[in-house]
Structure formats: structure tokens, C-alpha cells
Write a structure and sequence with these properties.
Layout lengths: L1 H13 L13 H6 L6 H22 L1
Length: about 60
């Protein structure tokens, strides 16, 4: 019985690993441009950056 269990383990180890399809690669630019939200990403993040710049402007002047 123990011998049979060993052979089963060996057969499990020899089994080739499951080949998963390569992940869909896209750049960060494409991710934001063709994202689920569409142009909303650009409007949202653009306004965020503009707001942060306007708020940080008087701090940088000092």
C-alpha cells in the first residue's frame, strides 16, 4: 500500500503544470485612455492635478 501511494505522488509531480494564457498587456496610458470610465478618467485626474497645483501654489511662493 505505501509503495502505491509513492508512485501516485511521483505521477502527480510529473504532471505538467497548467498553462495559463498570457495576461493582456497594455501600457498605463492605454489603461487610462481606453479604461472602463472612458474620458472621465482624464477629466477627473486632470481636475485633481489642477486643484492640487492651485492649492499648492501659495505654499511654493513662500
Amino acid at each position: 500500500m505505501p509503495l502505491r501511494k509513492k508512485t501516485e505522488l511521483v505521477s502527480d509531480q510529473k504532471r505538467p503544470p497548467r498553462t495559463t494564457p498570457p495576461p493582456h498587456k497594455h501600457t498605463l496610458w492605454q489603461h487610462f485612455w481606453h479604461g472602463d470610465w472612458g474620458y472621465f478618467n482624464w477629466i477627473f485626474f486632470g481636475s485633481l492635478i489642477l486643484l492640487s497645483l492651485i492649492l499648492a501654489y501659495p505654499i511654493f511662493i513662500k
